[in-house]
Structure formats: structure tokens, C-alpha cells
Amino acid sequence: MTTGQQAARPLSEVEIGRIRADFPLLQRTVRGGRPLVYLDSGATSQKPRVVLDAEREFYERHNAAVHRGAHQLAEEATDAFEAARATVARFLGAGPGEVVFTKNGTEGLNLLAYAFSNAGAPGALDGVDDSWARRLRLGPGDEVVVTEMEHHANLVPWQELCRRTGATLRWIGVDEDGELDVERLGEVVGERTRVVALTHVSNVLGTVNDLGPGSPVVAAARAVGALVVVDACQSAPHLDIRPLTSADSGVDALVFTGHKTLGPSGVGVLWARRGLLEAMPPFLTGGSMIEVVRMEGSTYAPPPAKFEAGVPMAAQAVGLATGLDYLTEVGLDRVHAHDQQLMRHTLDLLAERPWLRVLGPPDPQRRIGAVAFVADGVHPHDVGQVLDDSGVAVRTGHHCAWPLHRRLRVPASTRASFGIYTSLEEVDALAEALDRVPDIFGLAG
């Protein structure tokens, strides 16, 4: 978080009203005419009308295969696709040549994991600078480090990488408050560590992990020459993540996904240092990512094209760029301030209900975007059903984070998560709907 983000004023009621009017789906009713209270933005955000219009306009006016054809439509489609890449680069504070379009954040993380796996194939690193080649080759004795709070998307690909290469997976634990146990960092990150992959913000707890240049995790990784990979899927809609891509950040690669940042489904982003992208073997192969093709073999185009095989998701990329422009126009410092206001209000209201236990840091400044909780003796699925009957949409379950729930000794949780359009009144509606739970399940209120 930057100083500007801390000092910004929250969005006013009038501004929130104007923003909500931009999101058509928020106007609908559910469950017998109840107003929709959408508190599941951590799973997927709603889309403003400008994003819907941008995607529709691409299909209505410019639809053609990108980077193929010499006709006008093909040129327009290619220009729109590359303009979208430039917008993403500005959002990240990076160069367009460092931005790879993927299907989603999960694919971006798999792309990275498979690059390490593919690096061991004969000839895969021919012509690659030896300093990069040494960092990309994994084998028995090498270690990959994740954390206990990871979404499965940033855990399972690394588990599979270790299975394929013989490397060992290790992890940084989580304390009772849902923070990383950095006190024991030296026991986990060491001379054998080749990759440290961790989330910027927990999708369950909302915990914001310190990933600045002087942060303990990044410093420990850099000290042993390990590559640092960041899952920014939960932070990108709420925070200015440009500090993570700065030259001195210590972060080597980062992913986020379009459908959580006001954009369409089916598009995500991998950002990585240019030198890393140039060294990495490709993940998918075929058309568009090639340089020269002969029957005897092929050579590959420079990045980012090297990692974008096939006809790309052009309309979705245009929609994503429009969503990022929307966030940028509002101002991510003010989006963050609004989120902090929502977080404080939510934590205050839940604290007034002693039959609820909130998971994660008690300090609202240590978290963004999501509040997960459990009710005494009531399964989260039942809590979610009560809320749904009142028109309040939340997520229940393990949120693709089984190991974290096991660490916190809960089978599952109920999670309310915020978007740029979430209002304080919706948090009040959540609390009011939760007050039905003690009566229905016989809890002491």
C-alpha cells in the first residue's frame, strides 16, 4: 500500500450511487423480488456497462482473427488487441512486452510452473544465458516455497511441478490471526529454494501480505537468488499493484484475472520481467507463437507472442482493458479507501454478534476485500442459505483453500467480499440477514 492510498478519502454515497448505476446486474431482484445484495465479488466481479459495450462493439465492428490477415478488419482487431495490452501495461506500470494474455490467473500460474518443468527437456534452454538457465532448472534437492494461505491455483501447479521434477515443496505457515509466520521464515527459505510463490491478498481472510522490497519474504527469496511469483488476483481490483512490478520490487512475475477486475471471463494476465520471459520455454505451442517452422523443427517468436499460441481472446482483452480503465478513472487509492471503510463497518457489525467468529487479522488495515466467518454449531452452507433467502449473495465452503481452513481448524466458512460498487447499506443488509441465524438454529444471541 502506498501513502496515497492511506490518505485518500472514501467514495461518497453519491459517488457509490453513480457507480452502482453503471452495473446493470445490480439492479435486478432475486428470491421473490428481494433486492440483490451482491457480496461475492471475490469470486467474480460484476461488469459495468462500458465493459459490456466494449466487448459487444468489438464483435459488431472489428471481429477478425488477431495477427492474421491483411484486410482492414484484421488490422483493426489487431490494433484493438495490442491497445488492450498497452492499457494493461499502464495499469501495471510495466512495458507491453512484459504482458502476456492468458485464459485466467490459474493458467498464468500453470504457464510459469510448466516453464520450469519444460526447462529440463533436452535443448529447451539452448541459447539462454547461463544465469537464467541455472534458475529455471529444477531437480531433486531443489525446493519450491508457497504459503499455507494459497488458493489452490497457486498451490496445485507447484505440487505438480515438484512431482514432475523431483523438487521438494515447502510452505510458510499461518498464525492464529491469519498472518504469515515470518518468524520461522529462515527454516523454510534457504539455499535450496528456487521459487517462492505467494498470494498478495488471501482470498479467504483478506490478509494483505507485505511484498515490498524490504519485506521479510521477498528479502529472504532474493538473498538466495530465488524467483518470486505473486498471485495478485485478489489485490488487483482493490490496490495499486504497480509497486510490485517496479525495478526494485524483488518480484519476478505476477498474475491476475480479468473477471475479478470488472472485466470478462476468459482472460487473464501474466506479467514477468523481460529477461525471464525470454529465457522461459513456451507452455503452449502452435500458430502465432512461432518464428520459423520447418518439418524438422521450429523456432519461437519473442515474448509475449511466444506464450500466446492460437487465436487470442481479443474481445475479452478489450473488455478487460475497459474494466481497468474504469478502476483507474475512479482511482485505486479511493477504491482502497472505500474498501477500508467497508471493512471497518463489517468487522464492527460482526463483532456485535458473539455467536460469530471472524477469521483473519482483527486489524482492518491488515486486510482488504473479504471477510470470512463461522457461526457456532452451524455449517457455513446453512448460513449461506439463510442469507440467500434474504437476497444476500455470499460464498460458502473452503473457497479453493482447503489447507488454510484445516490450519484454522474449521471445515469451511462463509465469506462476504466487496467490489467497487459495494455500499455500506449492503453490509447492513448482511448483518440484518445474519440475525435470522440464531432464531433458526437455536443459538444464543
From TrEMBL:
Main EC class the enzyme belongs to: transferase
Gene3D superfamilies (UniProt xref): Aspartate Aminotransferase, domain 1, Type I PLP-dependent aspartate aminotransferase-like (Major domain)
Reactions catalysed: (sulfur carrier)-H + L-cysteine = (sulfur carrier)-SH + L-alanine
Gene Ontology biological process terms in this record: cysteine metabolic process
Coiled-coil portions: none
Cofactor: pyridoxal 5'-phosphate
KW rRNA-binding (keyword) present: no
Domain Aminotransferase class V: from-to ranges: 37-430
EC number from the UniProt entry: 2.8.1.7
GO molecular function, one term: cysteine desulfurase activity
PANTHER family on file: CYSTEINE DESULFURASE, CYSTEINE DESULFURASE 1, CHLOROPLASTIC
Protein name: Cysteine desulfurase
Organism (species): Serinicoccus chungangensis
Lineage, uppermost ranks: Bacteria, Bacillati, Actinomycetota, Actinomycetes, Micrococcales
